[in-house]
From TrEMBL:
Pfam families: BTB_2, Ion_trans. One of its GO terms (biological process) is action potential. Keywords: Cell membrane, Ion channel, Ion transport, Membrane, Potassium, Potassium channel, Potassium transport, Transmembrane, Transmembrane helix, Transport, Voltage-gated channel. The keyword Transferase does not apply. The chain crosses the membrane at residues 218-238, 279-304. Residues 83-308 form the Ion transport domain. Residues 1-42 form the Potassium channel tetramerisation-type BTB domain. It is a multi-pass membrane protein. This is Ion transport domain-containing protein. PANTHER family: POTASSIUM VOLTAGE-GATED CHANNEL PROTEIN SHAB, VOLTAGE-GATED POTASSIUM CHANNEL. GO terms for cellular component: voltage-gated potassium channel complex. It is found in: Cell membrane.
Length: 324
């Protein structure tokens, strides 16, 4: 009489008959291993069933993907991941500096040997940065655990937006496209690459989180700002415009003044001249100060709370690592 698991016993008896060992359904992996140890049966590699072999290969594949994903996404996962994040950040900074240098008028001199040389350098640096970023984005997508939500994350959208204009620009130039406005818009989008620093800056990530959490307060702010712009722009147009004074000759031009005044910037390019206009301009300034003070305090409070949470989490993590 053997007081053993009957499911395992039938599978083991079948193994002795057919020389094929298959784990039975309805038994845990630990119990199955205990039964094999009891009968002194070891599983050689060539005795693995096809399904077990596929599962082992799949586990290895998922383990590799997870390791690579942590390497790309979490600089704190290993020292190599930290070194790679520094390299990636350096490429982002290099691409941003290269974008700025490309706008210098000295590089646009036609027929100049120096200009041609530096244009080639700028083009080569940009190509290197774009290829590096493209491979990085492709690797992030390939090793993402949830590909359906990959492009829903803001940082991934920024990554794609930073490399896509270069390929569009390349296609348009190779096809002799002459639309200057389209080319300028495409090249303007390249500035998005500076936002890739947010992937490596904890402070910038907290700021993005703060803006996202305070979107209801910000929506109220923009609504109030729009009302104030239309209101004060219309008032200043009606009180200031005359044949001799044309600073506020239309409501759209007056709305520009209202935006500058409500946001407390005050360029001074357009100013009221009448007493009534100055009175309403003073009201506009006070309204702008009161309008901005509320949402800004909410943003600063949310940012402070989030920063404190991150600092406590980092401190707790360091304590756990020191205990190990």
């Amino acid at each position: 009489f053997l007081d053993r698991n009957p499911l395992a016993f039938h599978a083991i008896m079948n193994y002795y008959r057919t020389d094929r060992l298959e784990p039975p359904h309805g038994i845990s992996e630990q119990s199955w291993q205990e039964e094999l140890d009891f009968y002194n049966i070891s599983i050689p590699v060539d005795k693995l069933t096809e399904k077990e072999a596929e599962l082992k290969v799949e586990d290895l594949y998922h383990g590799y993907r997870k390791t690579l994903w942590l390497f790309l996404e979490n600089p704190e996962s290993s020292k190599w991941a930290r070194m790679y994040s520094l390299v990636s950040l350096s490429v982002v900074l290099l691409a941003s500096v290269n974008f700025i240098v490309d706008s210098l008028p000295e590089l646009r001199e036609v027929g100049s040997a120096t200009s041609d040389y530096w244009n080639n350098v700028v083009s080569s640096v940009e190509a290197f940065c774009i290829i590096f970023s493209t491979v990085e984005v492709a690797a992030r997508f390939a090793n993402s655990m949830q590909k359906s939500s990959f492009f829903k994350e803001s940082l991934n959208i920024i990554d794609v937006a930073s490399v896509l204009p270069w390929y569009i620009d390349l296609i348009l130039l190779s096809s002799n496209f002459s639309g200057l406005v389209v080319l300028r818009v495409v090249r303007l989008i390249k500035i998005f690459r500076i936002f890739r620093i947010g992937r490596y800056s904890e402070g910038l990530r907290i700021l993005i989180y703060t803006i996202h959490q305070s979107k209801s307060e910000l929506s109220v702010l923009f609504l109030m700002l729009a009302i104030g712009v239309v209101l004060y722009g219309s008032i200043l147009h009606l009180t200031e415009f005359s044949e001799s004074r044309r600073n506020f000759e239309s409501i759209p031009k007056s709305m520009w003044w209202a935006v500058v005044t409500l946001t407390t910037v005050g360029y001074g390019d357009v100013v009221p001249e009448t007493g009534v206009g100055k009175f309403f301009a003073s009201c506009c300034v006070v309204t702008g100060v009161l309008m901005l003070s509320g949402p800004i305090s909410v943003l600063s409070t949310t940012f402070g709370h989030r920063y404190d949470e991150m600092r406590k989490f980092r401190k707790k993590k360091q304590e756990l690592e020191s205990e190990k």
